[in-house]
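Obj.: predict assembly geometry.
Materials: sequence records (below).
Method: joint structure prediction, all chains together.
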Amino acid sequence: MLRTALQHPRIKLLVFALSLLPLVWLVWGAANNALGANPAEYLIRASGDWTLRFLCLTLAVTPVRQLFQLHALAKLRRMLGLFVFFYAVLHALCYAWLDMGFEWFDVAQDIAKRPFILVGFVALVLLTLLAGTSFQRAVRWLGGAAWQRLHRTVYLIAGLGLLHFFWMRAGKNNFAEVWVYTAIVAVLLLWRVYFTKRSKAI
Amino acid sequence: MLCMDKRLTMSSRPSRRLMNSQAAGFVHPISSEITPPSVYYQRREWLQHMAAGVAGVGLAAWAARDALAQTARPGKLAPLVGAVSRVSGASTMEKLTSYNDASTYNNFYEFGTDKSDPAKYAHTLPVKPWRIEVEGLVKKPMQFDLEDLLKLSPMEERIYRLRCVEGWSMVIPWVGYSLHELIKRVEPLGSAKYIEFTTLADPKTMPGVRASVLDWPYIEGLRMDEALHPLTLLSFGMYGEVLPPQNGAPVRLVVPWKYGFKSAKSLVKLRFVEKQPINSWGRSAPQEYGFYSNVNPLVDHPRWSQASERRIGEDGLFAKKRKTLMFNGYEAQVGQLYAGMDLKKFY
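Observations (raw structure tokens):
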């Protein structure tokens, strides 16, 4: 059934709409004062959380496709990846606006001064590179192999994103959620190692 | 440069907002420049007479305000009303944070690390019976039942700014009395230099205590002169009612010129000691949380700037954050406690 659903011509549109739901909730919540006592903090943290969640979803596409022979999933991967970038930009924008009041000099100083923000910033720059080369023509320009090499940067981005989250939470010793995301990413990466070894053995 | 010229700070005009100079240590007004209490009480009285004369009709209301604090009660818990405090700096005129925000956005890690956790889970806090032990370097070690504590000294309403180390702030009307009222009953010995405060850690009712975020129980400490300062409040209520559990019922500390985590909740023990106690956050991350933890816009937390803050519920979502004040705006009252200290070193 899932296989037939994935064949449906509207599946991309549906996933696109679902991926926008967090944004809809955040905008609605901000407008209706439903984000608690500190809406600015809520927006900054929630947009960061959703960046990590979409990153996990994107990294899950390949293992799930291989495990369950759901090859139609492949066509959703680019869109999910672009949503990682979308929520990361939203996260950076919330920080620069709500926390720093668009004082770009202060933002630059903050990035230079605080390792956890620097790490997040580097991850965003790398994501921008990937988003900027995500379309078909870029694959042709770069050539398939080079493109693939470039887009393996996503593993580094995942590491940087987790480190950013870890360092942010280290201020209050509050790591429970950090370990959950780390475990998910670790499983998804280890599966790749295992799968590559297995296919080589065959 | 943020550092002020020393000549300026020592000029004959009393300056209200002084900055720390790294070289000179903390500079403060000399005591002869501070308006004596008798003078400013006279001024207040005069202002009251003026108000009575001009307003006339409003006189009754004014008198009522003077007798008992006027904070509107949220009507959720038992009333606990205090008289308007006469302690200098104890009644800011700033707009109060809503009771809803003050009682749903809390850091009380014994009930979970999310700020909405305490309001959800703290109802299990066993507030009755409650007893505080006072021990250590005192002539009269004592145990106080909550009922005794409530009668120990007249209740006052203190409207304080509360500045969290995380960069947000509130304005809260607390009810309680100066901690020194309790301290003087137990007669500290000359060797007592600090007080160590221990708060409740009950794994049966506090889900957070089962997590290893901090070493439990939560410990805080004050230097004796800080503990004796009239602004240091032993609080039993807020907004004219007893404290909600998530805000540290039934009795907590409120030290308005320090970051919020210094104001330990749900106190069970005071120990008078000679050596500086190691407070829980200081133990967990000494490079990030100092013993003093005075609000200081010039000393950053390693992970974020402390120069500005967001006032909960007041500043709009897109409004610029407000500037954080030295000692959270209580510099005139507490600055002299830190005279000559390098506040960058003793953060």
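Conclusions so far: Residues 2-201 of chain A form one domain.
To do: check interface contacts against the pulldown list.
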